[in-house]
Protein backbone atom coordinates (compact mmCIF):
# COMPACT_ATOMS: atom_id res chain seq x y z
CA UNK A 1 0.00 0.00 0.00
CA UNK A 2 2.86 2.39 0.75
CA UNK A 3 4.19 1.79 -2.77
CA UNK A 4 0.81 2.72 -4.24
CA UNK A 5 0.59 5.90 -2.14
CA UNK A 6 4.15 6.88 -3.07
CA UNK A 7 3.56 6.25 -6.77
CA UNK A 8 0.35 8.29 -6.63
CA UNK A 9 1.76 11.28 -4.76
CA UNK A 10 5.28 11.58 -6.22
CA UNK A 11 4.39 12.91 -9.70
CA UNK A 12 2.20 15.70 -8.36
CA UNK A 13 4.77 16.81 -5.78
CA UNK A 14 7.58 16.70 -8.36
CA UNK A 15 5.70 18.77 -10.94
CA UNK A 16 4.48 21.28 -8.36
CA UNK A 17 8.04 21.65 -7.01
CA UNK A 18 9.27 22.36 -10.53
CA UNK A 19 6.80 25.19 -11.14
CA UNK A 20 7.20 26.56 -7.62
CA UNK A 21 10.99 26.73 -7.93
CA UNK A 22 10.64 28.60 -11.23
CA UNK A 23 9.23 31.54 -9.26
CA UNK A 24 12.44 33.56 -9.00
CA UNK A 25 10.85 36.96 -8.39
CA UNK A 26 8.90 36.75 -5.12
CA UNK A 27 8.38 33.07 -4.17
CA UNK A 28 4.99 32.33 -2.63
CA UNK A 29 4.59 31.23 1.01
CA UNK A 30 4.84 27.45 1.26
CA UNK A 31 1.84 27.49 3.59
CA UNK A 32 -0.42 29.12 0.98
CA UNK A 33 0.80 26.85 -1.82
CA UNK A 34 0.22 23.82 0.42
CA UNK A 35 -3.24 25.07 1.30
CA UNK A 36 -4.05 25.48 -2.39
CA UNK A 37 -2.86 21.92 -3.02
CA UNK A 38 -5.10 20.65 -0.22
CA UNK A 39 -8.05 22.59 -1.59
CA UNK A 40 -7.51 20.68 -4.83
CA UNK A 41 -7.44 17.40 -2.93
CA UNK A 42 -10.72 18.19 -1.14
CA UNK A 43 -12.30 19.30 -4.40
CA UNK A 44 -12.23 15.70 -5.66
CA UNK A 45 -15.11 14.66 -3.39
CA UNK A 46 -17.83 17.13 -4.48
CA UNK A 47 -16.74 16.74 -8.10
CA UNK A 48 -17.02 12.94 -7.86
CA UNK A 49 -20.50 13.22 -6.34
CA UNK A 50 -21.62 15.62 -9.07
CA UNK A 51 -20.14 13.43 -11.81
CA UNK A 52 -21.88 10.37 -10.35
CA UNK A 53 -25.23 12.17 -10.34
CA UNK A 54 -24.74 13.43 -13.89
CA UNK A 55 -23.71 10.03 -15.15
CA UNK A 56 -26.60 8.17 -13.57
CA UNK A 57 -29.44 10.69 -13.58
CA UNK A 58 -28.97 12.69 -16.76
CA UNK A 59 -30.11 11.23 -20.06
CA UNK A 60 -27.02 11.78 -22.20
CA UNK A 61 -27.52 11.15 -25.92
CA UNK A 62 -23.88 11.52 -26.93
CA UNK A 63 -21.18 9.62 -25.02
CA UNK A 64 -18.35 11.91 -26.16
CA UNK A 65 -20.22 15.05 -25.14
CA UNK A 66 -21.19 13.48 -21.82
CA UNK A 67 -17.62 12.52 -21.01
CA UNK A 68 -16.24 15.91 -22.00
CA UNK A 69 -18.86 17.83 -20.03
CA UNK A 70 -18.61 15.68 -16.91
CA UNK A 71 -14.81 15.74 -16.93
CA UNK A 72 -13.45 18.83 -18.71
CA UNK A 73 -16.18 21.35 -17.92
CA UNK A 74 -16.96 20.26 -14.37
CA UNK A 75 -13.38 19.71 -13.21
CA UNK A 76 -11.88 22.86 -14.72
CA UNK A 77 -14.81 25.02 -13.59
CA UNK A 78 -14.55 23.90 -9.97
CA UNK A 79 -10.75 24.27 -9.96
CA UNK A 80 -11.15 27.78 -11.36
CA UNK A 81 -13.73 28.65 -8.68
CA UNK A 82 -11.42 27.48 -5.89
CA UNK A 83 -8.52 29.55 -7.22
CA UNK A 84 -10.64 32.63 -7.82
CA UNK A 85 -12.36 32.70 -4.42
CA UNK A 86 -9.50 31.38 -2.28
CA UNK A 87 -6.42 32.95 -3.86
CA UNK A 88 -7.12 35.50 -6.61
CA UNK A 89 -7.72 38.43 -4.24
CA UNK A 90 -5.20 37.29 -1.62
CA UNK A 91 -2.47 39.79 -0.73
CA UNK A 92 0.22 37.23 -1.60
CA UNK A 93 -1.02 37.07 -5.20
CA UNK A 94 1.18 40.02 -6.02
CA UNK A 95 2.75 39.21 -9.41
CA UNK A 96 1.51 37.47 -12.58
CA UNK A 97 3.48 34.23 -12.17
CA UNK A 98 1.66 33.60 -8.87
CA UNK A 99 -1.39 32.65 -10.91
CA UNK A 100 0.52 29.75 -12.41
CA UNK A 101 1.83 28.59 -9.03
CA UNK A 102 -1.58 28.54 -7.37
CA UNK A 103 -3.47 27.11 -10.35
CA UNK A 104 -0.92 24.32 -10.72
CA UNK A 105 -1.10 23.64 -6.96
CA UNK A 106 -4.90 23.28 -6.99
CA UNK A 107 -4.83 21.24 -10.20
CA UNK A 108 -2.18 18.87 -8.88
CA UNK A 109 -3.96 18.46 -5.56
CA UNK A 110 -6.99 17.32 -7.51
CA UNK A 111 -4.91 15.12 -9.84
CA UNK A 112 -2.99 13.51 -6.97
CA UNK A 113 -6.02 12.21 -5.08
CA UNK A 114 -7.65 11.15 -8.34
CA UNK A 115 -4.44 9.34 -9.22
CA UNK A 116 -4.39 7.59 -5.84
CA UNK A 117 -7.91 6.26 -6.39
CA UNK A 118 -6.96 4.94 -9.83
CA UNK A 119 -3.83 3.21 -8.58
CA UNK A 120 -5.62 1.65 -5.61
CA UNK A 121 -8.20 0.18 -7.99
CA UNK A 122 -5.84 -0.78 -10.85
CA UNK A 123 -2.41 -1.27 -9.29
CA UNK A 124 0.94 0.47 -9.76
CA UNK A 125 1.49 -0.99 -13.24
CA UNK A 126 -0.19 2.05 -14.75
CA UNK A 127 1.57 4.56 -12.47
CA UNK A 128 4.08 5.63 -15.14
CA UNK A 129 1.40 6.42 -17.73
CA UNK A 130 -0.77 8.12 -15.14
CA UNK A 131 2.14 10.41 -14.25
CA UNK A 132 2.89 11.24 -17.88
CA UNK A 133 -0.67 11.80 -19.01
CA UNK A 134 -3.48 12.65 -16.52
CA UNK A 135 -1.31 14.13 -13.75
CA UNK A 136 0.82 16.15 -16.18
CA UNK A 137 -2.29 17.10 -18.10
CA UNK A 138 -3.98 18.62 -15.05
CA UNK A 139 -0.81 20.58 -14.27
CA UNK A 140 -0.53 21.92 -17.82
CA UNK A 141 -4.19 22.92 -17.95
CA UNK A 142 -3.44 24.70 -14.67
CA UNK A 143 -0.59 26.63 -16.30
CA UNK A 144 -2.98 28.03 -18.92
CA UNK A 145 -5.54 28.84 -16.24
CA UNK A 146 -3.00 30.48 -13.96
CA UNK A 147 -1.31 32.42 -16.76
CA UNK A 148 -4.52 34.21 -17.69
CA UNK A 149 -5.55 34.65 -14.06
CA UNK A 150 -2.22 36.37 -13.50
CA UNK A 151 -2.71 38.58 -16.52
CA UNK A 152 -6.27 39.33 -15.45
CA UNK A 153 -5.33 40.50 -11.98
CA UNK A 154 -2.77 42.96 -13.32
CA UNK A 155 -4.72 44.10 -16.37
CA UNK A 156 -5.36 47.60 -15.09
CA UNK A 157 -8.74 47.80 -16.86
CA UNK A 158 -11.97 46.16 -15.72
CA UNK A 159 -13.13 45.06 -19.17
CA UNK A 160 -9.73 43.56 -20.01
CA UNK A 161 -9.68 41.80 -16.64
CA UNK A 162 -13.08 40.19 -17.33
CA UNK A 163 -11.96 39.04 -20.76
CA UNK A 164 -8.83 37.43 -19.36
CA UNK A 165 -10.78 35.82 -16.53
CA UNK A 166 -13.06 34.32 -19.14
CA UNK A 167 -10.03 33.03 -21.05
CA UNK A 168 -8.57 31.56 -17.85
CA UNK A 169 -11.65 29.35 -17.61
CA UNK A 170 -12.46 28.59 -21.24
CA UNK A 171 -8.99 27.71 -22.51
CA UNK A 172 -8.29 24.99 -19.89
CA UNK A 173 -11.76 23.56 -20.51
CA UNK A 174 -11.05 23.47 -24.25
CA UNK A 175 -7.66 21.80 -23.81
CA UNK A 176 -9.08 19.27 -21.34
CA UNK A 177 -11.93 18.51 -23.74
CA UNK A 178 -9.48 17.96 -26.59
CA UNK A 179 -7.39 15.70 -24.36
CA UNK A 180 -10.47 13.58 -23.60
CA UNK A 181 -11.59 13.53 -27.21
CA UNK A 182 -8.27 12.07 -28.34
CA UNK A 183 -8.82 9.02 -26.16
CA UNK A 184 -12.49 8.63 -27.00
CA UNK A 185 -12.53 9.04 -30.77
CA UNK A 186 -9.68 6.90 -32.08
CA UNK A 187 -7.88 3.66 -31.31
CA UNK A 188 -4.66 5.34 -32.45
CA UNK A 189 -4.77 7.76 -29.56
CA UNK A 190 -1.10 7.21 -28.68
CA UNK A 191 0.07 8.85 -31.92
CA UNK A 192 -2.01 11.93 -31.17
CA UNK A 193 -1.59 12.26 -27.42
CA UNK A 194 2.22 12.28 -27.50
CA UNK A 195 2.55 15.35 -29.79
CA UNK A 196 -0.38 16.96 -27.97
CA UNK A 197 1.37 16.63 -24.60
CA UNK A 198 4.68 17.83 -26.02
CA UNK A 199 2.89 20.86 -27.44
CA UNK A 200 1.28 21.54 -24.07
CA UNK A 201 4.66 21.38 -22.30
CA UNK A 202 6.24 23.66 -24.90
CA UNK A 203 3.46 26.21 -24.57
CA UNK A 204 3.50 25.93 -20.77
CA UNK A 205 7.21 26.76 -20.62
CA UNK A 206 6.63 29.71 -22.93
CA UNK A 207 3.88 30.95 -20.64
CA UNK A 208 6.16 30.60 -17.63
CA UNK A 209 8.70 32.86 -19.35
CA UNK A 210 6.05 35.36 -20.43
CA UNK A 211 4.60 35.49 -16.91
CA UNK A 212 8.06 36.14 -15.50
CA UNK A 213 8.70 38.90 -18.05
CA UNK A 214 5.33 40.48 -17.28
CA UNK A 215 6.03 40.12 -13.55
CA UNK A 216 9.38 41.85 -13.83
CA UNK A 217 7.70 44.84 -15.49
CA UNK A 218 4.97 44.85 -12.86
CA UNK A 219 7.45 44.84 -9.97
CA UNK A 220 9.69 47.55 -11.44
CA UNK A 221 6.69 49.81 -12.07
CA UNK A 222 5.57 49.72 -8.43
CA UNK A 223 6.27 52.77 -6.28
CA UNK A 224 9.25 52.21 -4.00
Automatic annotation (TrEMBL):
EC class of the enzyme, as a word: hydrolase
Topology of this chain in the membrane: Multi-pass membrane protein
Gene Ontology biological process: proteolysis
InterPro entries named in the record: Peptidase_PrsW_arch/bac, PrsW
Keyword ATP-binding among record annotations: no
EC number of the protein: 3.4.-.-
Gene Ontology, cellular component aspect: plasma membrane
Keyword Membrane: yes
One MF term in the entry's GO annotations: metallopeptidase activity
Compartments (UniProt record): Cell membrane
Keyword annotations: Cell membrane, Hydrolase, Membrane, Metalloprotease, Protease, Transmembrane, Transmembrane helix
Transmembrane segments: 6-21, 33-53, 65-87, 99-121, 127-150, 162-182, 188-205
Function recorded in the entry: Involved in the degradation of specific anti-sigma factors.
Name listed for the protein in its UniProt record: Protease PrsW
Protein's organism: Brevibacillus composti
Amino acid sequence: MLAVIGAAIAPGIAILSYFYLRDNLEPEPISLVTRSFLFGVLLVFPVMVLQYIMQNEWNWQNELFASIFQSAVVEEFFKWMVIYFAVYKHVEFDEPYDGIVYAVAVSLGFATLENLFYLVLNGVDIAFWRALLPVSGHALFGVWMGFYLGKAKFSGAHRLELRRLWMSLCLPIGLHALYNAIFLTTEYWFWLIVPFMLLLWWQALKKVKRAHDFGSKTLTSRPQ
